[in-house]
């Protein structure tokens, strides 16, 4: 095999695929990227057995073939080569290693047999539709902060993606929760997505998908089955196994009848939470909100490090209520609010609170209160 490729093209392809590769692997071949040169293209593939990314690029192929080489080492070499360099990858002859040469630089890298590289089996991905890249990115951004990291509740370790209906409108909905907070975002249901099964996409593929969306302006072709999901993003294809489990009935925990409504300016609120949380206990980071007529007081009382409070103006005309929340969760939600105001809907100090965005009617959040 011998091919020549521009350094920028190689770097982009390796940057996309090598992120899948774990730094520590018990199976050596999983540390490698599979390079397949044929025709006028080079195809780069990396996998961790649960997820696979393939990127195809243009290249000058002098002799076709396949090789696997260390993914992170290749990426670091490409990153450090001068801009505009022409990079030649070659294997053959007496040397069993792959030679990478660019200008006066030359590297010899160990390889493993391409026949040992695991290929993710393809299956019938029955439902295919195209979604706008910016809308997919929005769904991820609005919800991924609420994905659980608790491995015992593995079915919460991803984003629940499914077709739904609200007020007679068909939507593609993304939901994530860790049991303490919930984030929901939706967009118009793309044509062809009506029959998609409800799926749970794991955290790692979500992170890689979001990174790939940075470079994309077009639509994303999404193909779904009961066990896998595939995203075609220009020259890159991300395929992932899905979480095999049932997502909880999240609709039951979204309070729709909360009648105490507080509207507060998002930016001053977030800044105030951040300030008073400086002295909250590290574990719970609890902040007490006391809301009365047109007034909001944020307070923290920590026996070890002192107390703090800050007063803000708020649009509120109901009876006084005091309720505690994790400061980190408040800041995460405030960070997703696009409008000038965050709208809090309370029932009482022990019940879930619903938060909506004055600038985005297609997103909502639920926060479980803390005892303070």
TrEMBL record:
It is found in: Cytoplasm. Its main location: cytoplasm. GO terms for molecular function: 3'-5' exonuclease activity; DNA binding; DNA-directed DNA polymerase activity. SUPFAM superfamilies: DNA clamp (SSF55979). InterPro entries: DNA_clamp_sf, DNA_polIII_beta, DNA_polIII_beta_C, DNA_polIII_beta_cen, DNA_polIII_beta_N. PANTHER family: BETA SLIDING CLAMP, DNA POLYMERASE III SUBUNIT BETA. Belongs to the beta sliding clamp family. This is Beta sliding clamp. It comes from Marinicauda salina.
């Amino acid at each position: 095999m011998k091919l020549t490729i521009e350094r920028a093209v190689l770097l982009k392809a390796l940057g996309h695929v090598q992120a899948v590769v774990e730094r520590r692997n018990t199976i050596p071949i999983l540390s490698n990227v599979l390079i397949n040169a044929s025709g006028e293209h080079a195809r780069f593939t990396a996998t961790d057995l649960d997820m696979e990314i393939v990127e195809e690029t243009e290249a000058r192929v002098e002799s076709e073939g396949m090789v696997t080489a260390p993914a992170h080492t290749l990426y670091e070499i490409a990153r450090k080569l001068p801009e505009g360099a022409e990079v030649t990858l070659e294997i053959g002859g007496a040397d069993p290693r792959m030679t990478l040469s660019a200008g006066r630089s030359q590297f010899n890298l160990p390889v493993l047999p391409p026949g040992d590289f695991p290929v993710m089996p393809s299956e019938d991905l029955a439902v295919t539709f195209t979604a706008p890249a910016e809308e997919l990115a929005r769904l991820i951004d609005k919800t991924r902060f609420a994905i659980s990291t608790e491995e015992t509740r593995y079915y919460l370790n991803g984003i629940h993606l499914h077709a739904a209906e609200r007020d007679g409108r068909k939507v593609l909905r993304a939901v994530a929760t860790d049991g303490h907070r919930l984030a929901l975002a939706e967009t118009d249901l793309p044509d062809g997505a009506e029959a998609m099964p409800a799926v749970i996409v794991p955290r790692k593929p979500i992170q890689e998908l979001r990174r790939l969306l940075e470079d994309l302006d077009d639509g994303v072709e999404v193909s779904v089955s009961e066990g896998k999901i595939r995203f075609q993003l220009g020259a890159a294809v991300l395929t992932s196994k899905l979480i095999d489990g049932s997502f909880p009935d999240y609709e039951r925990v979204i309070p729709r009848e909360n009648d105490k409504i507080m509207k507060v300016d998002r930016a001053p609120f977030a800044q105030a939470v951040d300030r008073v949380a400086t002295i909250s206990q590290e574990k719970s980071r609890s902040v007490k909100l006391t809301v009365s007529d047109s007034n909001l007081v944020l307070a923290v009382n920590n026996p070890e490090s002192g107390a703090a409070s800050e007063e803000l103006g708020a649009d509120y005309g109901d009876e006084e209520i005091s309720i505690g929340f994790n400061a980190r969760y408040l800041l995460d939600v405030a960070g997703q609010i696009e409008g000038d105001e965050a709208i809090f809907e309370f029932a009482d100090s022990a019940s879930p609170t619903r938060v909506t965005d004055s600038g985005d009617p297609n997103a909502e959040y639920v926060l479980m209160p803390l005892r303070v």
